[in-house]
Write a structure and sequence with these properties.
The protein is of the alpha/beta class and 148 residues long. The protein folds into two domains: 8-51, no CATH class; 62-147, Aspartate Aminotransferase, domain 2, CATH 3.40.640.10. The chain contains five helices and five strands, in the order αααβαβββαβ. Strands 1, 2, 3, 4 and 5 form a five-stranded mixed beta sheet that branches. Strand 3 (116-124) and strand 4 (127-128) form a beta hairpin. The radius of gyration is 18 Å and the shape is globular. The model has no long low-confidence stretch (mean pLDDT 78).
């Protein structure tokens, strides 16, 4: 059995948009503006419009995105994280001044938990984990932060 380390979905996207991706990468490389600059500003505006919000901020990595989201929401208490998440997720929570609370996905709502202020849901190879829990968290007025 052959197991591919490349998700076929991502490969199809690459093949469909390869020329556009390479053209944009060349433009970015020639401008030398890897940080800030016109391309990043255009992306932020386009992304904000795409998701239906007034603002979007480009950051260097998901760790910083999580940290900024927690800081913007002023979350200082317990943040539930799947036990199988990468250590950078815990680092972002700690850097924001909050406390990571690791859990087993199946046991999150079956156990008695300390007060949770938010929940960070992670994707594994692009596959989201147990959507039912996110709906329950939204219902209970938790902040749900999704790490992509």
């Amino acid at each position: 059995m052959k197991i591919s380390f490349i998700n076929d979905h991502f490969k199809r996207i690459w093949l469909k948009h390869k020329d556009e991706f390479l053209e944009r990468l060349n433009k970015l490389g020639e401008s030398g503006q890897w940080i800030l600059g016109e391309e990043v500003s255009n992306f932020e505006k386009s992304f904000a419009e795409f998701v239906g919000t007034k603002y979007a901020v480009g950051v260097c990595c998901g760790t910083h995105a999580i940290m900024l989201a927690l800081r913007a929401l002023n979350i200082k208490g317990n943040v539930a994280l799947p036990s199988h998440t990468f250590k950078a997720t815990c680092s972002a929570v700690l850097d924001a001044g909050a406390k990571p609370a690791l859990y087993d996905m199946d046991g999150l709502f079956q156990n008695s938990w300390p007060k949770l202020d938010s929940f960070i849901q992670v994707h594994i190879s692009g596959e989201i984990q147990n959507n039912g829990n996110v709906r329950l968290i939204k219902y209970n007025k938790f902040f749900a932060i999704r790490k992509v």
